[in-house]
Amino acid sequence: MAGRRRVVLLLVVVAAAFLVAATSAGRATRGKSARFELLRLAPAASLPDLARMDRERMAFISSRRASARRRAEETASAFAMPLSSGAYTGTGQYFVRFRVGTPAQPFLLVADTGSDLTWVKCHRAAAASKNASSYSHPAAAASPRRTFHPDKSRTWAPISCSSATCKESLPFSLAACSTPANPCAYDYRYKDGSAARGTVGTDSATIALASGRAAPAPRNKAKLSGVVLGCTTAYNGESFLASDGVLSLGYSNVSFASHAASRFGGRFSYCLVDHLAPRNATSYLTFGPNPAFSSPPPLESTASCKPAPAPAPADAHGARQTPLVLDHRTRPFYAVTVRGVSVAGELLKIPRAVWDVDQGGGAILDSGTSLTVLARPAYRAVVAALSKRLAGVPRVAMDPFDYCYNWTSPSTGGDLDVALPMLAVHFAGSARLEPPAKSYVIDAAPGVKCIGLQEAPWPGLSVIGNILQQEHLWEYDLKNRRLRFKRSRCTH
């Protein structure tokens, strides 16, 4: 104790002398610069004591940094993920960059509002699953992609096949469970006949936080834990050859969209660039408030079955909105109430049952489907109205389309100068989707345009695909069950 008192007394004396010297220097120099000599006193503490104090200081610095990072995560209202067209791969999908695991492993996934399972192609040996199937697509070897190594992620946690999560929360899981400790296996089937098989677990995704902007601030990242992730060791289907897996944006308690939106304002949004845009034309998939939208106005009455002839009401940012129908019969898809379709301002005669889920119809939005697919009565009415106004253009045959045209001018060799009729989809709440003409009379080949719609059986659902959604910003407000949209070029 006496030694410590001597050290304290010495420090007080030195401080007093320092103060006197500083005061005298101030009088003498009158505004000139002052120099102070740094004195190194004989150490009063041992080197181990100094090392301990340094460690304590470093812990304090680290805690301050971690606290600042936590505050940034808590105050951040959104995060964003780069989104781009996959046209350069020859597919009609949109890809999102996704980082999962600790340390993070990067992947390129299909952004799919019709999926409730996020999965990545998985390293077979690392997965070590007895329940995983052994088949794979024959072209997979010719198109090697990145694969997830769960054994290299500190945050990967397999879900056991005997758990309540596997048996009750994952509708795509397999019933087989030979040993309770075995991982939960799945066989996920898609409408186009493609499939993915593997085992499911949870892991953390690395996200780029955005504070009041659509694009994230550089190096402002955080972890989103507890993401349900499929480790796919076998798959089939052409749609998966160009990607590393699927990011589930569907409405489900296990989808990535629901998990992320629940933490960031209950909503997410995306903007799809032109489907033929180059690889570097990037937009964002955003979770949380999107600054491109203002505060939503109240929904209008949906009592009227006929769309209003006047333009739909829009907020200050030009956005329109309609109720989002989250029906158990259409899950994990997002359904909307369609009131009708018009061509060149004329409302077409389509039976109301086509848009009614209770009568075997209904309409959904699907970012994973390229072409818009209409139930037979709607398809025939729409293509008849469009083809009637294109009767003067020479027809050509091209699968899988029913109506294709030679768009090359005989005199100039360039494109024909033909005014295309406006197509509009009328939603409940007087909201109207008026896509650009290139979204429904599409470029199918050099000098050839086709009516880019497909026919679906009736009864059956109609699907608004990603080409009809292109160059629009879409917001899925899960909390308030609203769909908002507005025209946008989608590039930043």
UniProtKB/TrEMBL annotation:
Top-rank taxon: Eukaryota
SUPFAM superfamilies tied to this protein: Acid proteases
Residue span(s) of domain Peptidase A1: 94-486
Gene3D superfamilies given in the database record: Acid Proteases (2.40.70.10)
Positions of the catalytic residues: 112, 366
Region feature (Disordered): 295-317
The keyword Signal appears for this protein: yes
GO molecular function terms attached to this record: aspartic-type endopeptidase activity
Annotated signal sequence range: 1-25
Keyword Protease: yes
Biological process (GO), any one: proteolysis
Protein keywords: Aspartyl protease, Glycoprotein, Hydrolase, Protease, Signal
Similarity remark: Belongs to the peptidase A1 family.
Protein's name according to its UniProt entry: Peptidase A1 domain-containing protein
